[in-house]
Amino acid sequence: MTVSWKAFKDSWFLYRFLRDPVAMGCALVLFFLCAVALLAPVAAPHDVYDAINIDVLDARTPPAWTAEGSSNFLLGTDQQGRDLLSAMIYGMRTSLIIGLGATMLQCLIGVVLGLTAGYAGGKTDAFLMRMADVQLSFSTLMVAIIISVLVDVLLGRHSLALREQMAVPILVLVIGLAEWPQVARTVRASVLAEKRKEYVEAARVIGLSPLRIMFRHILPNTLSPVLVIATVQVAGAIMSEAALSFLGLGMPVTRPSLGSLIKTGFEYIFSGAWWITAFPGVLLVVLILVINLLGDWLRDFLNPKLYKKG
């Protein structure tokens, strides 16, 4: 472990990272936001899932610095009387869970199918890539509608409580199934270049199985583009959750996410309660921005034409 830590401290990655103020700033902001979201029960002033902390009479209370504000609610309250700052912290945790879960599902499906298509070639490659083309013809919204209808049929429209409990897994499934072709195509392109190299031919000559060659030898050499696209896909998945929640196909009102907070607040924005939409919207923009900027830096770092030692 000591050797690994020393190797990391002396690595070219850390050297470039510490000398890029934008990357360092974005990493610090992202670390802070993730830490606050992870520690939501401790960091949030109020527990938004505890009915004792919610009073309808406090609904749409302005931020604390305004004339009608209350010192108990720094950023005001939403239409249910929940502390908006607490709802944003809990909602950010939900959005991050959905974003990371959906990206992991996308990468799992995309890596397996991309490896198989690139290594097998022929009819297998053609079939899997045409399947990816068909998938790309469906938007995330269309996939969400189809799966929502299937869930309604399986659970029944009267099982609202069960549907609310399954909202996060459903969104992870929806976004993961909608976006995997991008990962699959990226992996396939890398595999097509790698499988012609000498180490793959040597592995075939000594009699290694195709699965072993794909996952033990080719896959590690294709992870760089997957890492870059996964970073960007996390931001995309969070945006997809926000869009689906805004359209009423995502998180329910009782379980806050950044998208559901923006949606519910949008209904009151013209009545003067601008803060319900504005503050979650700003937080969503900041979260997406720092993730995308880190993804851009990582893409540039892994591009040998841009970053060269010496």
UniProtKB/TrEMBL annotation:
It is found in: Cell membrane. PROSITE patterns: ABC_TM1 (PS50928). The chain crosses the membrane at residues 21-44, 96-122, 134-155, 226-253, 273-295. Its main location: membrane. GO terms for cellular component: plasma membrane. Keywords: Cell membrane, Membrane, Transmembrane, Transmembrane helix, Transport. Residues 92-295 form the ABC transmembrane type-1 domain. One of its GO terms (biological process) is transmembrane transport. It comes from the Bacteria. InterPro entries: BP-dependent_transpt_permease (IPR050366), MetI-like (IPR000515), MetI-like_sf (IPR035906), OppC_N (IPR025966). It holds the Pfam family OppC_N. It is a multi-pass membrane protein. Belongs to the binding-protein-dependent transport system permease family. PANTHER family: ABC TRANSPORTER PERMEASE PROTEIN (PTHR43386:SF26), OLIGOPEPTIDE TRANSPORT SYSTEM PERMEASE PROTEIN APPC (PTHR43386). This is Dipeptide transport system permease protein DppC. It comes from Fundidesulfovibrio magnetotacticus. The lineage of its organism: Bacteria, Pseudomonadati, Thermodesulfobacteriota, Desulfovibrionia, Desulfovibrionales. The gene is dppC.
